[in-house]
Amino acid sequence: MTRAQRIRGLLALAIVALSLYVAMSVPVHLGLDLRGGTQIVLETRPTAGDDAGPDTVDRTVEVLRGRVDALGVAEPTIVRSGSDRIVVELPGVQDPAEAAEVLGRTARLSFHHVLGTATDATATAADATAADAAAGPRPDPSGPPVLPDESGQLLRLDAAMLTGKDVEEAAARFDPQSGAGWHVTVEFKDAGRDRWAGLTGEAACRPAGDPARRVAIVLDDRIISSPQVDPSVSCGTGIGGGSTQINGAFDDGEARELALLVNGGALPVPVETVEQRTVGPTLGAQAITASVWAAAVGSTLTALFVIAVYRILGVLAAVALVCYGLISYAALAALGATLTLPGLAGFVLAIGMAVDANVLVFERAREEYAAHHRPTPRSALAAGFRNALSAIADSNITTLIAAALLFLLASGPVRGFGVTLGIGVLASMVSALVITRALADLAVARPGLRRRPHLTGIAHTGAVRDRLARRNPRLMRHPRRWLAASAAALVLAGAGIALRGLDFGIEFTGGRQVEYATATPVDPDRARAALADAGFPHAVVQTSGENRLTVRTGQLTTAQANAVGAAVGDLTSRADRLRDETIGPSLGKELRRGALIALAVALGAQLVYLAARFRLLLGTAAVAALAHDIVILVGVFAWLGKPVDGVFLAALLTVIGYSVNDSVVVFDRLRELTKPTRHADKARETRFRDIAGRALQQTLPRTVNTGTGAALILTALAGFGGDSLTDFALALLIGLAVGTYSSMFTATPLAVVLQERRR
């Protein structure tokens, strides 16, 4: 065994051992659909001068969403209910009371020049007019002029010179050396930097010890810090650099909470917690059990397929896939990610897709074995890993680019998907390049396999490659015909979107939420079945508190609302309607806009990377094929009348994450085959077309085997996963089929046509 093999073996053992330890010691958080969570109902309390319109409530929802993200809670549900209420559902919150307190704070921050101290009489008069204007915009002279500082001394304040809108970023810091302990650093932005210098420069003109040399930092009508400006600061110049720190004898939790509130921004109107309770899962136990069984069946079928095709190396790849699942699960647990049912299904699908790197290596090893007249399995396998590395790296880096940009630019579930996607990609690379390599090195070194190389699974070319070799199809003989077929599919998909429209789910459109008080506890699974029989198969049912049932659907007519009530009433002796309200979308405008921006930037970044690694021509073809896949998937759902909801969004993001992989593999082979080409223009045109066909033909066995492994899992999810996963698996099956087609017969023909037009 060489030194490199020993290092790989030890590294593989260390990764698996660490992942096993984390998986056994750190529990993973389950989402609202699997376990339920805490529901907090907030009600807006506008004061005089506050805009109390629906837009204000929508802005409040977005601020709350930012605070929930900063709390580290993944996959929350935040919707507007009625005209003045906001329902926040949080999965796996350890301290619901603290979460409610953080969400309910208005968090209006302001910075004031201290005019001096005040008498108690003045303070009493000022307190009579106290309101929230102390944290309002600067030209608000009606704010309370007097507030107590940290020690209780009353200070008269000038109008606010800066507010939280002037803050670029706030961060909790600990500095034991200076004695400041936990504090919050604040960075101002744009004009706020100049106003901060002006505020401190004005205070610096007063003598040391004068109360007017102080600057008061106010949060929700309470002075949290009022330091004296340091004597080193010049009068009229002030503190440059646009930063300061807030000291207030904070502990670590208080400092982080203050930074969270400042970064999240102030609520447009104050809110008050009117209700807090525990809610049950949105999916029933039967649906969850069916989904787990479907995942197990699909994973087993994929493992058996890999073993049947690649024999001993297939067994090792199946072991590596189990390790992949362990590594991914441990990473999700360590990061505190929340696992939902679509996330679980996507996680299982990623196991099927993770086989791709193994298939790439094994197919290259088969080519090496056939091309060099029966070399040893060990040398063929080493060449397979070496030759497949560039394709594995390029395909995974393009996916990582998309995952990173989704995390950085999006929010809510789209941002969470970026985390899950990135973890899956990194874990698959570790699984294939470290664990599979370590196991395979040990296996092919055994004397028995050297004498019987056919058992390795790479000592023959395989059924798909043999059939292609016999028929020798010239796949790129007529590239424009393939493009015409793709164009026809795009027109058909566009017609479905234009003529039938998209059936957006309540996550995008909002709907109706009805709460019932029942005489006896109602099994939510029975309620879901009853509502499905009544014509509401997509209704979301949750238990909420004792003998309470909440039903969330799309918009309802009066007759439909009565039908929902009748379906619930048939399950118990009495069902009283406690609340019937219109709810807003959980995927609001800001979240949707952020997701679209993130996707657009991700596509652009992938194009730049592929242009740098290949050529702009090939990068353009790959991204165009990805856009082709998105349009067709959406169009098929439009024709089928399937709901475009949060589950579909998860499936669409999965397709986007993996669709470009097939094109990258083909173009990597095309780049390899065209390296020595240096001839006349006409010969180059003919050669590029023929070489593109050869690249397709050589990579087709990998495409078929990878697609089959993923299709087995998706078919199991669609067939056995129940209603909750059928649409998800259907969307991914469509995306898999279209993506496989487009990589061969959209991206490659487009590259050929673009190349020929350049001549």
Describe this structure in words.
- With about 750 residues, the chain is α+β, with helices and mostly antiparallel strands.
- It is about 60% helix and about 15% strand.
- The protein contains 21 helices and 20 strands.
- The strands form six sheets. It has a five-stranded antiparallel beta sheet. Strands 3-4-2-13 form a four-stranded antiparallel beta sheet, with helices on one face. Strands 17-18-16-19 form a four-stranded antiparallel beta sheet, covered by helices on one side.
- Helix 2 runs antiparallel to helix 6 (about 250-265), helix 7 crosses helix 20 and helix 8 (about 340-370) runs parallel beside helix 19 (about 645-675).
- Residues about 120-145 and about 675-685 have low confidence and may be disordered.
